[in-house]
Amino acid sequence: MNEQSLDNHWHAMDAQEALKRRDVSEEGLSEAQARERLEETGPNTLEVEEGTGPFRLLLRQVHNPLIYLLAGAAILSLFVDHAVDAAVIAGVIVLNTLLGFIQEWRAEGALAALRRMASPHARVLRDGSPKDIDASAVVPGDILILETGDRVAAGARLIWAEELQVDESALTGESVPVGKDPETLNRDTPMADQKNMVRMSTSITGGRGRAVVVATGMTTEIGRIAAEVRATSREDTPLQKRMHKLGLVLGIAGIAFAAAVFGLGMLRDHEIIEMLMFSVAVAVSAIPEGLPAVISVTLALGVRRMAGRNAIIRRMSAVETLGSITVICSDKTGTITKNQMTVQKIWAGGSIYEVSGEGYAPEGEIKAEGGVTLKETADDLKRLLEIGLLCNNAALKEKEGQWVVEGNPSEGALIVAAMKAGLEKTSEKEERLSEIPFSSDTKYMATLHRAKNGAGHMAFVKGAPERILEFCSHVLMEGEAVELNDKRRSEIVGLGEQFGSEALRVMAGAYREISGSGGKLERSEIEGSLTLAGVWGMIDPPREESIEAVKEAKGAGIKPVMITGDHAVTALAIAKSVGIADNGKAVTGKEIDGMEKPALAQAALEQGVFARVTPAHKLKIMEALKEKGHVVAMTGDGVNDAPALKGADIGVAMGLAGTEVAKEAADMILTDDNFATIVHAVEEGRVIYNNLRRVVFFLLATNLGEILTLVAALVIGLDLPLTAVMVLWVNLVTDGACTVPLGMEPGHADILKRPPRDPKEFIIDRVVALRMALLTPIMAAGTIGLFWYSKESGGLDYARTVAFTTLAAFQWFQAFNARSTFRSVFSVGVFSNRWVLLGVGVAIILQIGAVHSPIGQMLFGTVGLTPGDWFLIIWVSSSIWVADELFKLMGIYGNLEKRAARG
Question: What are phi and psi of 732, to 5 degrees?
């Protein structure tokens, strides 16, 4: 058992020999054996990415142009006998490195937890019973149960297969699925022709089978390939790349600006040492030191918050795209609806009955048309309900307080309807003797039972009404089987159409007494001479939350489009009930085939409902919308949905009903398969992006304010109002206490009332640029003004202390400004983000310590301030908050956004 490899020529062994070599029977391993083997072989995972361990993360913090610049500043300070400044800058390097390390370590942990949530699963035999487990828990000797849509969890030797087709393109590059069977092959058969082997990470596209696992993890073929590219690292998102580029540009600009300032100072005959320190301060001012770490943390926190709302992000770039979505193409069944078929109407014995209750809970009752309570269940109705109960392979069970159906949802609905009339499957005496299973060709299912009176047998048949009616010669009316003449047949067809117009899926039930049967049911016995017992009208009811979600999506400027394989009438009725469609019609798959892409995109935007579609149609709809410039989210759950999921801007896979192939192709997985969750994810995506924009605005406004302050002082001819260590303190400590809280800002009430964001728009848009242009001069003027005023009444150290504290205080008020671009802080709620209050409180306490504590005065060269000084500083620095509130009230930012949207 120890030799775990694909080099042992498993394909050349008989299936039974492979089982023997793996010391397992066709019943699978026991849980105890599986635990032992997992300890021995380790988890079934691919080490495609070298682990981002603590040491590597620490190196990443040091390997940073900012650190190089700060190190240069420290050396320069030491060179000009500013030892304290050099020590402080060195301390800042250590602090910045540790903060970045801690934040990224936490972000790595959060993302690792999400990867575990989104990890693939496998179905295996354990102790003789099927069991769903995490793919990483698969061990050599496990018996894999393979079905259409599964991803193969490990290298395995087939022991049984039925029409099994496998897509091995991930391994061989062969795009055509390969047929598989368990027959033994020659020893020298090449890998691509080993039809009795299935490989890890390949996909089952058809059929089913079972296979014994012979290799896991890095010992599989895909594992060997992974080992060759093990150094592959996770790619940054487009936003992170742009922000890294921005940081680099700001760093270069800062150095160039510092050089220009140095040159200007020398031309004005300033001391060289003074200008060197002045230039260091300018260079440090230009760089938003905390930006990369804060972006990582904000993304990680947001993604974790989305997971708490049932949306697991598989690709970080999806977070940015979510805020730009203009169209959501959603499946109907199980996403917009509950995927819990419910019988609502029944026709039996010439009467129509109404069934109350929704979903699988057997709660409700059957009433006569008009809501009249039945005194007892009529025999005609009882016969139809018995057919639905016994000609049925589903099972209704209660699990953890929830009723669930194991099997076909429509069959589950028939069981629930029968139970509402007091019938129980377990109480019936009839034993099933034979069965003709349902198929899409015959469109019916039939079962044979022993008659209750013990004489002969009874065949029960259910299926498509048009098909069942073909086989019926009689119909049950008021307890008697009467001839099904043309008039009655026409009436029943009309009834089916009436049910269909109400979006009800119609199914018919019939029976026939068979004498002398040998216990084997033949098609010839039921494809004629049947007696129609009645019809059921059932519907998959829409989720209550879908109605509100559709309304929210429309309010957010997003067009919901429903795509289903169901009938057009049903699709349109559901779409109308949840608000996707108002009037019009559903576009069918046949119509899609004859449409050019521009017309198809127009139909999607105008009608919003597609019926009888195939996965190929979904792909065409998605491509048509994208070609028209829309940002499209597409849902899917099947193997054939993978191309549409991959091609969409956001591919959304179903976590409950979705295949592993669909999940692998998707950018996001819904753990509850709910349309409302997609809208919630869009909301969270917008919140995350807005929070990133808040952080960027806050940090860059600080940097620009510092630069303006220093340059204005030089141009006016004043002394250096801030030292390099003071600037570093404001950038790292004061700002650091506020940036992470800003990244945790909750969504505002208008988040889904704003149009989608242009995906080409940079995070620093016109509005952000205007805010910085209007507010940073206030910051610079207030700092310079108080510096000049204080220097007139005191010494340089006192003036610098006032300027230092004033600049820090401006950031406290800027933190409240940054919370909203268009609305007053009172409108969004002063206490709605308590983290910002805490961050500002911490920043104030730290600033008091920097000014009044002996160690603070030693490190920064500060002196104590009076209560009058503090009052003046708060009064001046609050001006930036007052100005921003006035600009918001006047609509300056909102008007600019409207003009930008128009033009």
Answer: -95, -45
Residue 758, token pair as written in the block: 């242009």
Q: Which two tokens stand for residue 518?
A: 């040998």
Q: Tell me: pLDDT of 544 over 90.
A: no
8 Å CB contact between 628 and 622: no
The residue with tokens 């909750």 is: 746
**CA–CA gap between residue 231 and residue 18 (Å, rounded):** 34
Nearest alpha-carbon partner for 521 in 452, 455, 446: 446
d(CA 771, CA 443): 66
Long-range contacts of 182-187 (CB under 8 A, 24+ apart): 182/15, 182/157, 182/158, 182/209, 184/11, 184/12, 184/13, 184/14, 184/15, 185/11, 185/12, 186/12, 187/9, 187/12
Tokens of 777: 């001069």
pLDDT beyond 70 at 590:
yes
Residue 362: phi and psi, rounded to 5, are -75, 55
Residue 287's alpha-carbon distances to 238, 240, 259, 457, 740, in angstroms, are 20, 16, 15, 87, 18
The residue with tokens 């860059």 is: 700
3-state percent breakdown (helix, strand, coil) of the chain, nearest 5: 50, 20, 30
Q: Where are the alpha helices (DSSP H) in 391-425?
A: 409-420
Please tell me the distance from the alpha carbon of residue 852 to that of residue 782, in angstroms, as a whole number. Answer: 22
Q: Across residues 212-228, what is the average pLDDT?
A: 77
Segment 837-865 mean pLDDT: 93
Phi, psi of 510 (to 5 degrees): -145, 170
Residue type, 155: G
Cβ atoms 449, 457 nearer than 8 A: yes
Annotated catalytic residues are 331
pLDDT greater at residue 680 or residue 255: 680
Return the pLDDT at 880: 96
Has residue 164 got a pLDDT over 60? yes
The pLDDT of residue 168 is above 50: yes
Q: Which two tokens stand for residue 435?
A: 């069965």
- Give the residue with greater pLDDT, 368 vs 3: 368
Mean pLDDT of the chain: 83
Pairwise CA distance, residues 636 & 663, whole Å: 9
Q: Distance between CA atoms of 703 and 728, rounded to whole angstroms?
A: 10
| pTM more than 0.90 | no
Start-to-end CA distance of the chain, whole Å, equals: 70
- The answer for residues whose C-beta is within 8 angstroms of residue 773's C-beta and 6 or more apart is none
**If you average pLDDT over residues 84-107, what whole number do you get?**
70
At 831, phi and psi to the nearest 5? -100, 10
Q: What is the pLDDT of residue 96?
A: 67
H-run or E-run covering 670: strand 668-670
* The pair of three-digit structure tokens given for residue 159, joined into one six-digit string: 């022991």
β-pair type (129-134, 327-331): unpaired
Closest CA to 805 of 722, 741, 719: 722
- CA gyration radius, the chain: 35
